[in-house]
Design goal:
Length: 173
């Protein structure tokens, strides 16, 4: 986060002022992103455009952009993915129950305040694919157990079966 800027902000005041805030966060410092990252480098850029909504509640247009190094679910290697996303947010106290009639996403405030870091991290998580994979299997980072034509020219695309000997042993017992 930018030095000297508060992470907790007063949503009502910023909405009254129609404020626009910009923040940059280190991806490695976002707690819910840590398990998804292959490398804890890179930044998340976030923009928060606050406004008072017709409902009378504070709201914001939130946009995020980042290029995290994610773990490919096919080869388990790191690969960069450029992502961007955004949402129209309406802020509500955590004990409010009349939030069903809005077309916007709701984000809970604690004592009228919200953490910009948490909000930006939430938007980034929503922008990520459920199971990230490299662009194509042929350029994928050589998955463990996958034999390519480079390793054995006579076999292309054959899966190694490391436990096949175990299956034979189980049959003997």
């Amino acid at each position: 986060m930018t030095a000297g800027l508060s992470d907790l902000v007063d949503c009502a005041r910023l909405s009254e002022d129609v404020a626009v805030l910009q923040r940059v966060y280190e991806l490695g410092e976002l707690p819910r992103m840590k398990d998804l990252l292959a490398e804890a480098r890179g930044t998340l850029s976030a923009s928060f455009a606050f406004a008072k909504l017709a409902s009378g509640r504070p709201g914001a247009e939130v946009t995020v952009t980042a290029t995290p190094q994610l773990v490919c679910q096919r080869c388990l290697q790191g690969c960069g993915l450029s992502v961007s996303g955004g949402s129209a947010i309406e802020f509500a106290a955590s004990d409010e129950s009349d939030t069903a009639d809005s077309e916007r996403e709701f984000f809970s405030m604690q004592n009228g305040q919200v953490s910009l870091r948490d909000l930006a991290e939430e938007e980034l998580l929503l922008a990520l694919p459920r199971a990230f994979m490299c662009s194509t299997p042929l350029t994928c980072g050589k998955a463990p157990g996958y034999v390519t034509g480079d390793e054995r020219p006579d076999v292309v695309g054959e899966m190694r079966r490391p436990f096949s000997a175990l299956q034979d042993l189980l049959k003997k017992t």
